[in-house]
Specification:
By secondary structure, the chain is of the alpha/beta class. It is built from 10 helices and 13 strands. It binds uridine-5'-diphosphate. The site of uridine-5'-diphosphate (UDP) has 15 residues, from helix 6 and strand 8.
Length: about 325
C-alpha cells in the first residue's frame, strides 16, 4: 500500500450482486469496507468470503431508515435496491422507498462525512426508449404508473435528489446508469434473463423466452462494470454516465448461445412478455470512453462460461 492512505467506504446493498463485487474490489486495495444490507435481495453467501477480513464490517440495516455511521468516510456507494424485474414487482414499496428515502439517507451520510457519493442508477431511466443507442442526453420514455414504474421512477428521483445535493450542498455526487450486467454471485432464482437461461439450461428445462425474443439487450460482465465504477468514483464528473456493453443482441440469440455454451438439450418455449418490457436497449458509451477512458473488455462467451461455472458450483 506504500504511503497511500487507506480509504473507508460505505457500500449500501453491499451483499447484493454488484455490491459484493465492490466490497471485494475495495478490500483488495486494502481499504476498509462497511457493507450495509437488509438482505431483501442481498445474499449472505456473497459476503462470506470477507467475514474474516479485519477491514470488513457488516451492518444489517434498511437504508430507507436513517442511520449514524461512526467515524470518517471517504465514499458512499449507494447500491441498495431490488434490481431484477420480478424482485421489484414483488417489493414495489420497498423499491420506491430505497430509491427515495434510501437515497436521501445515503446522501445525508455523504454530506455529513464530506464523502464522495456514487449511486447506481439504471438504463431503466430510459424506459422503452424511442432512441437507440441511448445516450445520457435522452430523457426517456417511462410509464410512471405501470408495474415497472416503481423502479424506473425511484431511480429517476434518485438522480434528481443526488443532483440537488450537488447543487445545493456541493456534495461530490456521481451517477452511473448501469445497463444489463451479469456474472458470478447473481442468484440463480434472481429472475433476470441470464440467471434464468443458465439455470434452465443446466437443469435441462426449457428456456423461457418472454414474447417473440426479438427484443434486444446487451450484457456487461461485472468486472468490467466495477472497473468503470472505480474510474467514475475517481473522476470529477457529476452528471449521469452510462456504463454497459454496447454489443446489442436479441434475447433469442442469447438463449441459443447459452444452450450452446452449456451443451444443454433444452428447448425454447415462449411466454407472455412482461408489461412495458423495453423493445430495445443498448448503451451509447461515448461519454464513458472519452471522459473515463473506459470500455468493457470481456468477450460475452468467456464471461458466460465463467458465470455458467459459478452457477454449477452453487447448484
Ligand atoms: N426475459 C426472457 N426470459 C426470461 C427472463 C427475461 O425472455 O426468463 C427477457 C425479458 O422479457 C427482457 C430481457 O429478457 O426482454 C431482459 O430481461 P431482464 O429481466 O434480464 O432485465 P431487463 O433488461 O428487462 O431489466
Amino acid at each position: 500500500m506504500g504511503s497511500k492512505r487507506k480509504k473507508r467506504v460505505l457500500i449500501t446493498g453491499g451483499a447484493g450482486f454488484i455490491g459484493s463485487h465492490l466490497c471485494d474490489r475495495f478490500l483488495g486495495h486494502g481499504d476498509e469496507v462497511i457493507c450495509l444490507d437488509n438482505f431483501i435481495t442481498g445474499n449472505l453467501s456473497n459476503i462470506k468470503p470477507f467475514a474474516k477480513n479485519k477491514n470488513f464490517r457488516l451492518i444489517r440495516h434498511d437504508i430507507s431508515k436513517p442511520i449514524l455511521i461512526p467515524g470518517r468516510l471517504d465514499a458512499v456507494l449507494h447500491f441498495a435496491s431490488p434490481a431484477s424485474p420480478p424482485d421489484y414487482l414483488k417489493h414495489p414499496i420497498q423499491t420506491l422507498k430505497v430509491g427515495s428515502l434510501g437515497t436521501h439517507n445515503a446522501l445525508g451520510i455523504a454530506k455529513a462525512k464530506k464523502a464522495r457519493f456514487l449511486m447506481a442508477s439504471t438504463s431503466e431511466v430510459y424506459g422503452d426508449p424511442l432512441v437507440s443507442p441511448q445516450h445520457e442526453g435522452y430523457w426517456g420514455n417511462v410509464n410512471p404508473v405501470g408495474p415497472r414504474g416503481v423502479y424506473d421512477e425511484a431511480k429517476r428521483f434518485s438522480e434528481a435528489i443526488a443532483l440537488a445535493y450537488y447543487r445545493e450542498h456541493a456534495v461530490d455526487v456521481k451517477i452511473i446508469r448501469i445497463f444489463n450486467t451479469y456474472g458470478e454471485r447473481m442468484r440463480p432464482e434472481d429472475g433476470r434473463v441470464i440467471p434464468n437461461f443458465i439455470s434452465q439450461a443446466l437443469a435441462g428445462k426449457p428456456l423461457t423466452i418472454y414474447g417473440d425474443g426479438r427484443q434486444t439487450r446487451s450484457y456487461c460482465y461485472v468486472d468490467d462494470l466495477v472497473n468503470g465504477i472505480e474510474k467514475m468514483l475517481a473522476s470529477n464528473l457529476h452528471f449521469p454516465v452510462n456504463l454497459g456493453n454496447p454489443n446489442e443482441m436479441s434475447v433469442l440469440h442469447l438463449a441459443k448461445l447459452i444452450i450452446e455454451l452449456t451443451g444443454s438439450k433444452s428447448k425454447i418455449v415462449h411466454e407472455a412478455l412482461p408489461v412495458d418490457d423495453p423493445k430495445r436497449r443498448c448503451p451509447d458509451i461515448t461519454l464513458a470512453k472519452t471522459k473515463l477512458h473506459w470500455k468493457p473488455a470481456m468477450e460475452l462467451r468467456k464471461g458466460l462460461l465463467r458465470t455458467i461455472a459459478y452457477f454449477k458450483s452453487v447448484s
